[in-house]
Structures are given as C-alpha cells and as structure tokens.
Amino acid sequence: MSLAKLNGQIAGCVKCSRLVKHISSLQPRKGLMLRDYWNRPVGGFGDPQSRFALVGLAPGAHGANRTGRPFTGDGAGDFMYPLLYQAGFTNQPEAYAMGDGLQLYDLYITNAVKCLPPQNCPSSDEFTQCRDYLAAEFSLLDNLQIIIALGRGAFMSTLHLYKVQGAIQRLADYPFSHGGEYRLPDGRVLLGCYHTSRYNLQTGRMTKQMFIDLLEKAKALLAE
Ligand code: SF4
C-alpha cells in the first residue's frame, strides 16, 4: 500500500452517512458552482519520506472541501502556508488549488477526519471511523518523528489511536496545550498547537509568531 493508493481509497469512502449527507447538501460560496467543489473525503499530501506531520481537524467547507487538498483555499491555509514557507517546509508561500505548484519538504499534512463535518464538529463515531485512515497514514510514513496536532480534536484523535493500539493507557496523562510535547512509546513526539481557525486568529489566541515559534520548536525536537 502506498500513500497514493490510500488516498484513492479515502476519496471513495462513504462510511459516515451524516457527513456524506452534509457534504451533498452544502451550498457553494457566492459566485461558485457545485462543480467547483471537490465535495468528497480529502486525503493527506506531502513527502512520503517526511519526518514531520501536521494533523488538522477536518476539511474546511470552502477550503479543502472545495479544493481537495488540506488547508488549501481558505483563511486557515492563507495564514499557515506562508509561515510554513518561511520555516522551510514548502517551496512557495501560496496555496490556493491543486496544481498550484506547491510542494512540501519533509512534511506531510492531513486531517484527523477526512470529511467536512457540520459546524466543524465531528462526532466521536466519526473520529473513530476515520482513525483507521490516520493510522494507515502514520504507518506509511516510515521516517515520521514529529506529529504536530492542530487543535485539541486532532491531538486527542492521535492519542486515541495510540490508546487503541495499546501503546498508551490514560489519555489524562497527555493534556492538550499549545507547545505541549509528549514522547510517545514508539519514539515519535506529539506536539500540541492551537488550531489556525478564523476564530483563533481573530481573537489572537493564535498568532503568526506563535506558529513560527511552534515550527521552530518542532525542528529543535527533531535535533534532540
Ligand atoms: S470521515 Fe473518514 S471514515 Fe467517515 S466517510 Fe469521511 S473518509 Fe470515510
């Protein structure tokens, strides 16, 4: 199994009926047509040899759910990609559509849940259903060492994965915080990061400097 083949499987997945229904009822943004939307599960992308993975919650309605690529085409991506470029993780600061020439260096980007959920809030069943795909992505990233979880949802879903696999016992031993780091039993490091959502950016809970500092911390952890 390769990441490309896995993404093919993910794109055809219809396991979560609530999410399938929600995506099919989504109204396009003003000036766009339904045919402009991906409107399917969105798999991850990036360098299969990556040592870093960045895990978000789920596709944005008019971002990844429209373009078919995580964090592409909405405010969260507009915030994040220039900073990833600044930190040396991409070849360009722009990310607006598949085919825009974006390449990731030493980084794989994905979401804990691959389908757009209502109110950006997957149910626990939907997290569970989609966790097999996250586990498959992690297992195919042979060199993965640092997992940056954007937001509590992605952070907890990653921890649940390790718990289900019997690698950790108590989730309470791993409280989420921005910059909080945990070495997992397989040697990988899980690093918490506030999500780059519009709400967090508008309220100042997440800033450019905080995100850059987090990326630098991730690189320093690798050096350790
Ligand atoms: S959220 Fe995941 S498991 Fe559920 S339908 Fe989408 S791809 Fe399949």
Assign an overall shape: globular
State the fourth-level CATH superfamily: Uracil-DNA glycosylase-like domain
- Individual helix count: 8
CATH fold assignment: Uracil-DNA Glycosylase, subunit E
Just give the CATH class. Answer: Alpha Beta
Q: How large, in whole angstroms, is the Cα Rg? A: 16 Å
Structural class: alpha/beta
Flag low-confidence runs.
Answer: none
Q: Residue-averaged pLDDT, rounded?
A: 96
Tell me what the structure shows.
The protein is of the alpha/beta class. It has one domain (3-223): Uracil-DNA Glycosylase, subunit E (3-Layer(aba) Sandwich), CATH 3.40.470. It has eight helices and six strands. Strands 1-3-2-4-6-5 form a six-stranded mixed sheet. Strand 5 (181-183) and strand 6 (189-193) form a beta hairpin. Helix 4 crosses helix 8 (208-223). The longest helix has 17 residues, at 124-140. The radius of gyration is 16 Å and the shape is globular. The relative contact order is 0.15. The mean pLDDT is 96. The structure holds iron/sulfur cluster. The site of iron/sulfur cluster has 14 residues, from helix 5.
